[in-house]
Amino acid sequence: MRYLTIIEKTETGYSAYSPDLSGCVSTGETYEEVEQNMREAIEFHLDGLKLEGYEIPKPSTSSAYIEVAA
Fold first, then answer.
1. CB-based burial label for 53 (10 Å; 0-12, 13-18, 19+)
2. What is the domain-level CATH number for residue 36?
3. Nearest Cα residue to 34 out of 17, 20, 21
4. How far apart are the two ends of the chain, measured CA to CA in Å?
5. Predicted TM-score of the model (pTM)
6. What residues make up the domain containing 21?
7. CB-neighbour burial class of residue 41 (10 A; exposed 0-12, middle 13-18, buried 19+)
8. CA 24 to CA 12: how far, in whole Å?
9. What confidence tens digit (pLDDT) does each residue in 22-70 have?
């Protein structure tokens, strides 16, 4: 499955979260590191949901860039 992941620059590196997976977050010092950490966090999150007998959320969030005159 492909889950939309939001990656944001912070003062100390990067943070990431997936809107479709409540509470699934990660951080990293570099963009590549946070991307890998988030991949592992999503896998761990989904494994936990399965173990607890919860349904795996289907990806449903989308994104778009909206262009405006500034």
1. exposed
2. 3.30.160.250
3. 17
4. 37
5. 0.90
6. 1-61+63-67
7. buried
8. 19
9. 999 999 999 999 999 999 999 999 999 999 999 999 999 999 999 999 8
